[in-house]
Amino acid sequence: MYLFFEPITSLDQKMEEFYPFLSIRVVRYLQDSDVVTVGDLTKKAYYDLIRTPNFGRKSLEEVKTFLATAGLALRPYYWHYDDPEYKKTGHGTVDHK
Predict the structure, then answer these.
(1) By the 8 A CB rule, do 15 and 37 touch?
(2) Residue range 70-92, pLDDT digits in tens
(3) d(CA 65, CA 71)
């Protein structure tokens, strides 16, 4: 488990402030996916993170723990509403208006 010496005070707080306290895999994910603020990270869903190559369960738990220190969480994921591939193919019975 990682120790977070900087408390999360705002959703607009830059993620760069927390890089020294996060593992290199999490930092690389944040940089590659253009997550700039804590608010950007809370807009990500479990599925967004776990489908990233080399981003496993330990990294996911680290992100969840990091957000939980401020009472935050990842966005719930409803695949049939959010998945662009699902919207493109139109498979299923959900109306995407």
Answers:
(1) yes
(2) 899 998 866 555 555 555 554 44
(3) 10
List residues bridging with 14 in a β-sheet: 37
Q: Is the pLDDT of residue 46 over 60?
A: yes
Contact 36, 45 (CB under 8 A): no
Residues in CB range of 16: below 8 A, 6 or more apart:
none
Helix (H) and strand (E) counts in the chain: 6, 0
Token pair 């593992």: residue: 23
Strand partners, 75: 45
Tell me the two tokens of residue 40: 């950007």
pLDDT tens sequence across 7-38:
888 999 999 999 998 999 999 999 999 899 99
Residue with token string 């990294």: 59
Check: CB of residue 12 under 8 Å from CB of residue 76: no
